[in-house]
Design brief:
This protein is of the alpha/beta class. The protein has 15 helices and twelve strands.
Length: 336
C-alpha cells in the first residue's frame, strides 16, 4: 500500500530556480509510488511557517509521515514548531538534518533539540559526520545519503587540468565566497590565464564584499558571476572548468561537491565539518585548512603540475554509492 508523506521544508524552487535536496527527494518518492505533499512555497518566512503548521492540520488524517528539513539558522525554530505540532496531532515525524553548523545549533539549543530529536520517529543524517555528532549527543540517527542521479553526470577525466576554477554555492558569509577570489589571485601569480566562475544565489551582503575584492585585485576580466543556474545549466557550464573549490567555514556533505566529483572536476575543499567524511585527502580530492587561501592556491598549483593524477577516477567511484536506487532502498526500509 502506498504511503502518503507530508514534506515540510522551503519549497521555493519555482521562485528561485534553485533545485534543492527536497526537490530531488520528492521526485524520487513520486517515482516510487509515494504520495507527496509539500509545504511551503510562501516567500515570507513567517507566513511560510504558518502555512506549514496549517498544512499539517489540514492533511493530518491523510498522511503516514511528516518529513521535516532541519537547518541551523532561523528554520531551526520552524522545525521545532512543526515537529511539536505533528507530535500533538499524533503524527510520526522524521527530521532530515542539513548544514554543517547544525552541531553548534544543537549544542546551543539543547532544550529545543531534545524536544525535536528525542520524540521523532527517526532522525535522518545525510552524512556520517552528522550521524556521528547526533549519536554522540544521544540522538538515535539513521544514515541516508543525499541523492545523486549518477546517470545524469557525464564523467570527463581531467588528465591535464587547466587553471579554470569553478565555485558553486549560495553567496553567504558562512560559505566564505571571498576566499575564492583570494585563491584566484594567488593562482594567477603563477598562471596568469587562470579564471574563476562563481555560480549561486545572493543570500546576504557577502556578494558586495566579493565584488569589492575583485575590483581591488583588478580581476574583473577573470571572474564571472552567473547568479542562480538550474542544475542542468551549471552542469553544462562545468564542462568548461577543471577544478572545483569549496571554501566554506562550515559544512555537512554538500551535494554540489558530490556532483563535482561525479563530473570529473578536481575537488579542493576546506577541511571542515563533514568534508573529511566525504573526501579522502589526496585520494579522491584535496583538503586544506579553513580560511587559508594561500594553501588552497598552492594545492591547485600542484594539481596543475600533474600531482595527484588519480583523484578524479577515485572520486567518481566513491559517489556512485549515492545512486537514487540505493537511497530509495534505505527510505523504503524506514517507511515500511
Amino acid at each position: 500500500m502506498s504511503k502518503t508523506i507530508l514534506y515540510i521544508g522551503n519549497n521555493l524552487s519555482k521562485k528561485t530556480g534553485y533545485i534543492s535536496s527536497m526537490d530531488d527527494l520528492c521526485h524520487l518518492f513520486r517515482e516510487n509510488k509515494y504520495t507527496i505533499i509539500q509545504s511551503s512555497d510562501k516567500s515570507n518566512k513567517f507566513f511560510r511557517i504558518l502555512d506549514m503548521l496549517f498544512t499539517i492540520v489540514f492533511y493530518s488524517k491523510k498522511i503516514d509521515f511528516v518529513l521535516i528539513d532541519v537547518f541551523s539558522t532561523f528554520y531551526f525554530y520552524g522545525a521545532f514548531l512543526t515537529s511539536q505540532w505533528a507530535r500533538i496531532l499524533g503524527l510520526k515525524y522524521i527530521p532530515i538534518l542539513h548544514g554543517g553548523n547544525l552541531p553548534n545549533r544543537i549544542e546551543n539549543s539543547k532544550r529545543l533539540s531534545n524536544f525535536i530529536f528525542r520524540n521523532s520517529y527517526k532522525n535522518i543524517a545525510p552524512s556520517n559526520y552528522l550521524k556521528y555528532v547526533f549519536e554522540k549527543k544521544g540522538y538515535s540517527t539513521v544514515l541516508v545519503p543525499n541523492i545523486l542521479n549518477i546517470e545524469n553526470y557525464n564523467f570527463r577525466e581531467r588528465l591535464y587540468p587547466q587553471p579554470k576554477i569553478l565555485w558553486v554555492r549560495a553567496f553567504r558569509h558562512l560559505y566564505n565566497p571571498t576566499m575564492a577570489i583570494q585563491v584566484l589571485y594567488y593562482v594567477k601569480k603563477k598562471h596568469p590565464k587562470a579564471v574563476l566562475c562563481m555560480v549561486g544565489p545572493e543570500k546576504d551582503d557577502s556578494i558586495d564584499e566579493v565584488k569589492s575584492i575583485v575590483k581591488k585585485y583588478n580581476l574583473e576580466n577573470s571572474v564571472e558571476f552567473t547568479g542562480v543556474l538550474s542544475k542542468e545549466k551549471w552542469i553544462k557550464k562545468s564542462h568548461n572548468y577543471d577544478i572545483f573549490i569549496n571554501t566554506t567555514n562550515f559544512d555537512n556533505t554538500p551535494v554540489s561537491v558530490m556532483e563535482a566529483m561525479a563530473l570529473g572536476l578536481v575537488v579542493v575543499s576546506t577541511n571542515v565539518g563533514g568534508m573529511p567524511y566525504l573526501i579522502s585527502d589526496k585520494q579522491d580530492g584535496v583538503l586544506i585548512p579553513e580560511k587559508n587561501p594561500k594553501k588552497m592556491a598552492n594545492e591547485i598549483k600542484l594539481i596543475l603540475n600533474g600531482n595527484y593524477p588519480q583523484l578524479t577516477q577515485n572520486a567518481r567511484r566513491k559517489v556512485e554509492g549515492f545512486s537514487a536506487e540505493k537511497v530509495i532502498a534505505r527510505w523504503n526500509e524506514i517507511l515500511y
